[in-house]
Amino acid sequence: GKKGFIFDLDGVIVDTAGFHYLAWRNLAHELGFEFTEKQNERFKGVSRVRSLEILLEIGDVKATQEQKEGWLVSKNEEYLSYISKMTSDDILPGVLKVLDYLQEKQIPMALGSASKNAQPILKRVGLFDRFDSIVDGNHVTKAKPDPEVFTIGADALGVAYTDAVVFEDSIAGIQAANRVDMVSIGIGDAQVLHEADHNFKDFTEIDTAFLDQLINA
Ligand code: G6P
Ligand code: MG
Question: Predicted ipTM?
Fold first, then answer.
């Protein structure tokens, strides 16, 4: 059937994974513990609220609901201060070439992100109009590895789940795509993302021959 392509945002289209990490690490330091980049892998693709829960587990911190709400706000304020400085230069290498090629081939494209900040980020980097459908943290009730964010995207594009191709930098996102038999493409460390159907270090490694292979599969 007709193919549709679905892109995660953070760590796939833009390099915001580092901003999320910085903001969570600063909170961990405030609370008196370390938070490593390796531990941060578990946070990729995971909702803001769930991320805080995992962070507090790592630091063995007990907190009231009120404290947690305050930390969620301050973490997001710090994160927003980083993204307010973003420009189209922050689009990850090779991404524009892939988007251009798929657009030229008239392949429907959706965004599938857990982030509630997805729309302002896309506007900042000038990619808001590139997607036929934007599904983000404001539209879903179930977080990755639940496939909801991708199934809503595929439905919006009018493609069968098995005809959807998903680009993801997170373990949770790869598992979400695999759960409904979408084609999962890991962007990042192949060892971390070993469950993906295909893996690339970044989009510069993806050539048009590979895209054609996906489109014509
Ligand atoms: C993405 C990121 C996660 C982040 C989540 C929520 O999935 O990979 O690290 O926690 O979005 O983002 P938000 O912008 O709503 O805090
Ligand atoms: Mg991501």
Answer: 0.98
